[in-house]
Amino acid sequence: MRITRLLFFVFLLTPYVVLAQTKDVLFTIDSHPYYTDEFVRVYNKNLDLVKDDSQKNLDNYLELYIGYKLKVEKAYKIGLQNGANYQNELKSYRTQLSKNYLSDSKVTNELVQEAYDRLLQEIRASHILVLVDENAAPEDTLKAYQKITDIKKRIESGEDFIKVAQQFSEDPSVKENNGDLGYFSAFRMVYPFENAAFSTSVGKVSKAFRTRFGYHIVKVVDKRANRGEVTVAHIMILKPASVSDKPSPNPEDKAKVTIEDIYKKIQQGESFESLAQQFSEDKSSAPKGGVLQRFGSGQLSSEEFENVAFSLKNINDISAPFQSQFGWHIIKLIEKHTVRTLADMKTELEEKVKKDERSLLISNSLAKKLRSTYSLSKDQKALAAVKKILTNDFYAQTWEVPSNSKDFEKPILVINKKKSIAVTPFLNFIQAQQKSNLKIKPLSKLVDVLFEKFIDEQVTAYYNENLENEFPEFRYVMDEYRDGLLLFDLMDREIWTRAKSDTIGIQDFYKNHLVNYQWKKRFGVDILSSTDQSVIEKAKQLMKKGKSLEVIKEKLNTEGKVNIMLKSGVFEEDDALLSSFKNVTKGVSGIVLKDNYYFILNVTEVKEAGPKLFTECKGKVMSDYQQFLESNWVNELKKEFEVKIQPDVFASIKKQLQQ
After folding, report:
1. CA distances from 161 to 165, 174, 183, 260, 444 (A)
2. Domain-located, residue 532
3. How far is CA 98 from CA 22, 69, 129, 475, 624, in A?
4. 528 falls within a domain
5. Residue 558 and residue 510 in one domain
6. pTM exceeds cut of 0.85
7. Is 614 helix (H, G, I), strand (E, B) or coil?
8. Domain boundary, last residue among 209, 225, 241
């Protein structure tokens, strides 16, 4: 994600203590002044987070800081701040950041309690969706609402919910799940959907309701206590890709045999973790003994896997092999996690509440407080004029703002004697409210209700627009993010894209730095392992006689017992297992005991150390080339821009910071 890379540039957004109370010019870039207060603030924020002690040195840090600002100046010089993507992303970030300031603690606490109560339950539900964009035209909104209403009537008349879902639901996943969403709890669905599901009884169908996706109805199939979360380890043999010309035996049968052999090894007392490390084809969990991140109901894409995991009762219980859509698994229970107390979860829930649609309730509560803070001047004549303009077409969702009124530019609301809002925005607000399907009558009363909602929206917007003036820390964060975003775009243009497209330059860099791209000595090997020394000795003798791996396995894995396991591949000489052998050479090795397993190697190929082909290290070369380009970039910028440092001012800052 883009923000992840931005953290490389943006000076970290953490609380700070400003030691310098003065605001003097520390340096200029082409006459653009940069001040001491910002430099001191940023330095203090990063002081404990910088690992490189050289960057804590104030002289070195000033060089880094100037380099950073030179890049930002370059971005402004070439006009990156005018890009639509940049402006949209900056606006999006500000919207997210401002949510932390648009809160009401009482409402927040109520929403946290509601969320926690819901987290104690899990609901299984099916739904039917009629798609309509949240900004759709009134006629499209009405059409969608009528369609979901008709669907609801069919179900109420006795038609089967699943059959109706298959026929009418516009959720793309309905073809696979018949509208069944599985089990979920709080925060797993958008808030209006969650509300409908939790307020509907088991076996009942909700009223039609709207989310940002469209109109829904929900049938609640089951409610149960939250199963909590589990931590498990697993061994996985992937489902083989279908290949039409694959000779027998069937590759799916081979995967099943492999998982059953592994299960037999576990039943024989061998270590689950060691077997996972050796044979699991889940590359992300195998090195950790198969351990997965903890999860709850509905968080994985395999219901079969979840159900088996939650069916294990005691720590260290191990499941029999089972199949999912991804392959074959064996699961070991590591830990069960019950739902934590509200006190333990409160901070986490507050963050979640602020990030989803519940935050709208908090904003509405804030608006009431702002009304008592700001002075509001309402023009009753303008409001009366609006009441004459609005017609009954509003109820049919077909009313449009007239285009020929001379009164539209007159103010209808003034906030704090500073912000004047004309009639036109209110009329546009009214038109947009048609999709809410309000039935308030008469029209004059409807206008009064909508005007109060409009005032709430406007006072909150005014407050939001002035956050930089109200809260200095908000302004600092936005300034830093703005610079970081520009720098990301600049780096993408000047460094990353250039490195990708400069094929000649990158090839020359590869050749000139070939010493950095070298293979260590490598071995093509077959690895045989067993917990029984006598078995591994027999395997060694069979290997020396030239017997194939299949024959060795057939001879030694008898009577339903898996006595030996096989693995083949190419490994570098410092591989954890190979480094346990002395003088690895071509042919059959001696026996090595490691972690209660006996191992032998059959080295089939030896590849001497040497340079990697460009295709073998392309990613690393491109990364190194990017760093090379960037390291020379600041010097080029110093030639392009004039930098003037105020040495006396810097000396004063150094003295202050070193106290």
Report:
1. 6, 12, 18, 41, 42
2. yes
3. 29, 26, 32, 11, 38
4. yes
5. no
6. no
7. helix
8. 225
Instruction: Compute the distance between CA of residue 279 and CA of residue 289 in angstroms, rounded to an integer.
Output: 10
The H-or-E segment that residue 337 falls in is strand 327-337
Q: Is the dihedral of CA 655, 656, 658, 659 positive or negative?
A: positive
Report the interhelical angle of 647-657 vs 58-77 (nearest 10°).
130
Q: What is the pLDDT of residues 313-344, one digit of tens each?
A: 999 999 999 999 899 999 999 999 999 999 99
* 284 and 207 belong to one structural domain: no
Place of tokens 């019950």: 338
487 in Cβ contact with 71 (< 8 Å):
yes
What is d(CA 20, CA 40) in angstroms, rounded to the nearest whole number?
A: 7
| Same domain assignment for residues 510 and 523 | no
Percentage of the chain exceeding pLDDT 70: 92
**Does the residue 37 lie in any domain?**
yes
Fill in the DSSP letter of residue 53.
G
Nearest CA-CA partner of 258 in 273, 233, 242, 275: 275
The answer to whether residues 550 and 589 belong to one domain is yes
Asked whether the predicted pLDDT for residue 5 surpasses 90, the reply is: no
Q: How far apart are CA 333 and CA 292, in angstroms?
A: 10
Q: Which residues, 6 or more positions from 284, have their beta carbon under 8 angstroms from its beta carbon? A: none
Residues 494 and 522 in one domain: no
SS3 at position 207:
coil
pLDDT tens for 234-277 read 999 998 765 444 444 566 678 899 999 999 999 999 999 999 99
* Domain encompassing residue 220: 121-225
Q: Are residues 463 and 478 in the same domain?
A: no
Q: 1 pLDDT band (50/70/90 cuts)? A: very low
- Asked if 96 and 477 touch (Cβ cutoff 8 Å), the reply is no
**Beta partners for 422?**
411
In this structure, the answer to whether residues 495 and 531 fall within a common structural domain is no
- Residue 525: CA count within 13 A, CB half-sphere: 24
Give the sign of the dihedral formed by CA 318, CA 319, CA 323, CA 326: negative
Question: Letter for the amino acid at 594?
Answer: K
**What is the SS3 assignment for 214?**
strand
Q: Which residues contact 189 (CB under 8 A, 6 or more apart)?
A: 181, 197
CATH number at residue 607: 3.10.50.40
Instruction: Let me know whether 506 and 641 are in one domain.
Output: yes
Number of structural domains, the chain? 5
Is 100 part of any domain?
no
pLDDT confidence of residue 7: 36
